[in-house]
Amino acid sequence: MESKTKISDNFDLGKIKEILPHRYPFLLIDKVLEVHSAISKVNSEGATVKALKNVTVNEEFFNGHFPERPIMPGVLILEAMAQAGALASFKTEDPPMEFMIASVSNAKFRKPVVPGDQLVLTAKVERDKGKMRRIICRAEVDDQLVASAEVLAVAQPR
Q1: What is the pTM of this model?
Q2: Where are the domains of the chain?
Q3: Does the domain formed by 7-157 have CATH 3.40.190.170?
Q4: What is the pLDDT of residues 106-147, one digit of tens each?
Q5: What strands lie across the sheet with 31-36, from one edge to the other?
Q6: 36 is catalytic
Q7: Does residue 118 contact residue 141 with C-beta atoms inside 8 Å?
């Protein structure tokens, strides 16, 4: 049975940094909005996370992508979705882990993400086979789908 975790108790910025090894400028999760625990304690299948990335004009990549029309690079949207997937995959009893992208399938980028947007990232662990996790990811701005992908990630202790 899926259960909702209280965000204030478990996923403040300190907890995000505990789980994800990324730091600025590559930490692409600003806040976790919702967490739903896995169906079973054996693995993380069924776990979901809804997270937020505030896209600001001060992001370094906007200096070159593109100066006249700043657009968040698709690869960084994909990375943000994968980071949300890592948060969904993590169980409190896990040791510190690294989640690395092994492959990406069915990636689609539907609309540009620009400064001022709030990127809402949703990730669901569809399959957990030990070290390998298949995660279904979505990114939305103003309730409109801007990107989606299936990410296969490898989880290993740090």
Answers
A1: 0.92
A2: 7-157
A3: no
A4: 999 999 999 999 999 999 999 999 899 999 999 999 999 999
A5: 31-36, 48-54, 118-129, 132-141, 144-157, 97-109
A6: no
A7: yes
